[in-house]
Amino acid sequence: MGGCVALVVGAGRGRRFGGDVPKQYRLLAGEPMLRRTLRAFAEHPGVDAVRAVIHPDDRDLYDDAVAELPLLDPVPGGASRQDSVRLGLQSLIERAPDRVLIHDAARPFPSPDLIGRVIAALDGAAGAIPAVPVADTLKRGDSAGLVAGTVDRRGLWRAQTPQGFHFGVILAAHWAAMGRDDLTDDAAVAETTGTAVALVPGSEENVKVTTQEDLDKAARGLGGGTPEFRTGSGFDVHRLVEGDRVTLCGVEIPHDRRLDGHSDADVAMHALTDAVLGAIAEGDIGSHFPPTDEKWRGAPSDVFLRHAADLVSRRGGAITHVDVTIICERPKIGPHRDAMRDRLATLLGVAADRVSVKATTSEKLGFTGRGEGIAAQASATVRLSG
C-alpha cells in the first residue's frame, strides 16, 4: 500500500511511574496520555495510518482511551520495548508502507512540525531521528558517588521519538538484532546494520513522561496557569431485598440479599458519581440519568461514573483523589476492598493509591443497623486548569 505509518509503542508497565494503571492510560489534563499521543499522528497530513502496540492485558483500557479515533487495530507487544517494536513492524508487512515512524506512547507532545521534519528527512536518508543537543555539563561518577571526570559534550545529542525509517530497512535491522538487550532505541538497532541515521531538530516540549512529577508538570503546562482544585461530596441509600448478591464499587459480592434500584443499585458508585458531578457543579446523577427513563433500568453504574469523569475531562480537568465510605453491617467489605479500589481506579483512569474505599457500621442503629439497606458517602477532588 505504501505511504507512511506511525507505530506508537505503549506495551510497557511503567514500573518507575508506580500505581496500578500503566502511565500511558493516566489522565493528562483530563485525557488519557495515550490518546493525546495517538491523535497527534492521526491528525498529521503526512501520516496515512496509525497503529498502537499494547500490552495484551490492556485492551479494555485501550478501547476506552482511544474511542472514535481513526486507528488501525492494535497489536500485542512483547517482553521488551525492542520486542514490541519488532512485533509491531511485523504486523505491517502485509500493508507494506514505504516509511514508518516509531514513537513512544509516553511522549504525548510531538508537534506537527517535528513529525513533519522527521518525515521530510527520509527523502534523503534511510533513517532520521529528532534530537536536542546536550547543553548541560556532563560528569562521570565513580562507585563512591564522587565526580570521576568531565565528559566532553561536543557532538552529543539527546535522542527523541518519533524515529523514522524506510520500512524494509528497520524491519530487517530488528530481525537481525533479535536476542540483543543492549539497544535502547530504534536508531541503535538501525546502526547495527550500518544504516545512516540523520539528525533533525527535536524539541524541548517533546518530553517523555516517566514519573508522576513529569505528568504533573505536563498538566500544568497544558493548563497555562495555576490549577484550581475543587471537592464534591455524594450520599446515596438503597434498600436490601431478597436476592443472592450485592454490587458495590463495581464488584459483585455474594450475599443473601440484593440492593433494590432502577439500575444495578450500586450505592457506592452512585455516591461517588454524585461527588464527581458536585465537584464541577454539574447537578446530580438523577438529572443526567432519570430513574423514570426505562433506558437505564438494570444499567451498570460504571456507565454513570464514566459519564461524570468524561464531563471532568471536557472541562480540561482531572480527578486527583476519591474517597468512598460504605455503611452497612453486612456483607463484610474488607475482603473485597482491593478489588473495589482497582475497579474504580480503572474506571477513573487514576492510580489505585488515589482511590480510598472504607467501610463502617452504624452500631446496629437505624436502617443500616437493622440490615434494611446500605448507605454510602463519597468525596472527589478534581483539578481544573487555571
List keywords for this structure.
386 residues; alpha/beta; Spore Coat Polysaccharide Biosynthesis Protein SpsA, Chain A; 60s Ribosomal Protein L30, Chain: A; 2 domains; 8-stranded mixed beta sheet; 5-stranded mixed beta sheet; 12 helices; 19 strands; 29% helix
Write the layout of secondary structure elements.
Elements lengths: L3 E7 L16 E2 L2 E2 H10 L6 E6 L4 H8 L8 E2 L4 H10 L8 E6 L7 H10 L5 E7 L4 E4 L5 E5 L5 E3 L3 E4 H10 L9 H6 L5 E5 L10 H12 L4 E15 L2 E4 L2 E4 L2 E3 L7 H13 L5 H4 L13 H13 L2 E11 L9 H12 L6 E6 L5 H4 L3 E12 L2
Parallel strand pairs: 1-4, 1-6, 4-5, 7-12, 17-18
Antiparallel strand pairs: 2-3, 6-11, 7-10, 7-11, 8-9, 13-16, 13-19, 14-15, 17-19
Helix pairs in contact: 3-5, 8-10
Estimated structural class: alpha/beta
CATH fold naming of the largest domain: Spore Coat Polysaccharide Biosynthesis Protein SpsA, Chain A
Provide a count of the helices. Answer: 12
| CATH secondary-structure class of the largest domain | Alpha Beta
Helix content range: 25-40%
Mean pLDDT: 91
| CATH homologous superfamily heading of the largest domain | Spore Coat Polysaccharide Biosynthesis Protein SpsA, Chain A
Structurally, how many domains make up the residues?
Answer: 2
Q: Give the beta-strand count.
A: 19
Please provide a written account of the structure.
- This protein is α/β, with parallel strands linked by helices and 386 residues long.
- The protein folds into two domains: 4-223, Spore Coat Polysaccharide Biosynthesis Protein SpsA, Chain A, CATH 3.90.550; 228-384, 2-Layer Sandwich (60s Ribosomal Protein L30, Chain: A), CATH 3.30.1330.50.
- Helix content is 29%, strand content 28%.
- It contains twelve helices and 19 strands.
- It has helices at residues 33-42, 59-66, 81-90, 112-121, 167-176, 186-191, 212-223, 267-279, 285-288, 302-314, 337-348, 366-369, and strands spanning 4-10, 27-28, 31-32, 49-54, 75-76, 99-104, 127-133, 138-141, 147-151, 157-159, 163-166, 197-201, 228-242, 245-248, 251-254, 257-259, 317-327, 355-360, 373-384.
- The strands form five sheets. Strands 1, 4, 5, 6, 7, 10, 11 and 12 form an eight-stranded mixed β-sheet that branches.
- α8 packs parallel to α10.
- The longest helix has 13 residues, at 267-279.
- The protein starts with a strand and ends with a strand.
- The mean pLDDT is 91.
